[in-house]
Amino acid sequence: MIHFDERNDTICALATPGVTSAISVIRVSGKDAIAVADKIFRPLGGPSLLNGSGRTMRLGTILKDGLVIDEALAAVFRAPASYTGEDSVEIFCHGSLFIQKEVLMLLFEAGARQAGPGEFSMRAFLNGKMDLAQAEAVADLISSETSGAHRIAMQQMKGGFSKKLSEMRSELLNLVSLMELELDFSEEDVEFADRTRLRNILDGVRAHIETLIESFKLGNVIKNGVPVAIVGATNTGKSTLLNSILGEERAIVSDIHGTTRDFIEDVVNVEGTAFRFIDTAGIRKTDEAIELIGIERTYEKIRKASVVILMLDAERSDSFADSMAKLAESPALQDQVLFILVNKTDSLSGGNTKEEQLVSLAAAFADKCGLKPYLTMGISAKAEKGLNELKKALVSSQNLPQAGTDELLVSNIRHHQALLLALEALNRVEEGMNNSFPTDLLTQDIRDALFHLGEIVGEINTEEILGNIFSKFCIGK
């Protein structure tokens, strides 16, 4: 974890992947950043980096013991006009792994240290260049894989979400200030905060928060995808289904029971909606220790999934009842959307009639076990039969609203939790007003709401919280 007392250090790191490439970018930031870079970089035909102006890019050479390591560019940014708000230098060198390593080692020798994950963005936040929600959007932008995820991250980076939160906090803060002023004049029975205005502001802020909370369903799906757990007994074709959906051999397929020991997952874009398919270990009785761990993880994935696909083997209809009973008895199965697929129907000798009989049998067993599947159908994962119908049903089962271009969406679980807590506090304020609670109790609940809204943008923070957030960033950002 990065500690606050390390903020005055000069840090450096690769801002591009540590692989062979045409160009690599190495960032340096801190009070001695320009002096450190000046020790290893010699500009061609001009003053040193120390004597140059900010926001300039210079061509020069990187030297080690008088020998040229590389010909490179160095961009200088003087505080506060930089990403971090500190003096910064970005060195653009050739992307050889050898050159990358040599440049970093020279910077270390000159007085810089290796930056930790997210340390550049943390410094930008601590120096007031962005708030915490915007800083987290930087990480989301880097990891975005769809146009929707990119749009949410860009909107939050521009401060759209933060602006709305700031407006809500400002209204509540002005109001609670007047209410606390009343407490100073409690003996004179003075009311500075009009209760009708208080209720109107309270209703407006709660409505905004409820809208943001509701948007998390769509925002989370756009950012992370709908988690879909593929479960069932061993050798029912779970891995084959995953491979067919992905269009590649992602999971090992074998006739040997228990081949999948751990979960395998990947994301597929289905009609504009991202689904995160998770192939889990087959559920069966076993004494094999590693397989038991895989089965336990299967239940964990069911618990976290939005959709559960139960795979049944058309060639083993006598196992239908047992598979459904195991799933129905699992405490992990709660409110997930359930699909029941009778697989390997291409191998049935009775054709469509036999397939219809097995699907009806599966539906009857599901009803007997108290399971309420969204869809029960026959497929052949190997022959890719029924997959288009399955994909369309998956999309329709989510019933996701369409996001407007400028609509604010919450996609961060930390933000979602803070909004829920803020709403709980404001609900207590409403309850207190309805029951004529004293002003000091009302102000305490409003303060709680302000605290939780402030947590989102970083106006309320602790070193531990910040360290946890920025530790998830890539090094160099």
What does this structure look like?
With 477 residues, this protein is α/β, with parallel strands linked by helices. The chain folds into three domains: 127 residues, Probable tRNA modification gtpase trme, domain 1 (Gyrase A, domain 2), CATH 3.30.1360.120; 133 residues, Four Helix Bundle (Hemerythrin (Met), subunit A); 156 residues, P-loop containing nucleotide triphosphate hydrolases (Rossmann fold, 3-Layer(aba) Sandwich), CATH 3.40.50.300. It has 15 helices and 13 strands. The strands form two sheets. A seven-stranded mixed β-sheet has the order 3-4-5-6-2-1-7, with helices on one face. A six-stranded mixed β-sheet has the order 9-10-8-11-12-13, sandwiched between helices. A hairpin with a 2-residue loop joins strand 9 and strand 10. Helix 1 packs across helix 2, helix 6 packs antiparallel against helix 14 and helix 13 runs antiparallel to helix 14. The chain is flat, with a radius of gyration of 29 Å. About 5% of the residues have low confidence.
